[in-house]
Structure formats: structure tokens, C-alpha cells
Write a structure and sequence with these properties.
Oligomer: single chain
Number of helices: 1
Order of helices and strands: EHEE
Helix content: 10-25%
Radius of gyration: 12 Å
Number of strands: 3
Structural class: mainly beta
Amino acid sequence: MGGVGTYLGTTDPRNLPFYRRMGFAVAGTAPPGPDGPVVTGLHRGHDSGSSANHMMVSP
């Protein structure tokens, strides 16, 4: 039986070491809007090697 991947996003780079220790890997970053922070997307689990894990950014 296969697992299900888990995804999350953070705007605070200080969180990245914690999430990495929990088994997450960076999937990508989304550039900020005019006044917004950079969002880093992370994933963990079954689909961690698939091309579907790349962070999607919408305008």
C-alpha cells in the first residue's frame, strides 16, 4: 500500500531546519508580490521523487 505525500509552505526561512529534520525537502520557492514574503514550498512522503512536487506559482 502506497503512502500519501504531504506539502506545506512557509514564509519564515528560520523554519526550514525544523521542517528538514521532520523529513521535508524544499520543492521550490514562489517570488513575493510587491510587498509580500518569499514562500518556500516543502514536501515529504510517497511522491517525493515525482515531477508533480515542483511548486506551482500562479500570477
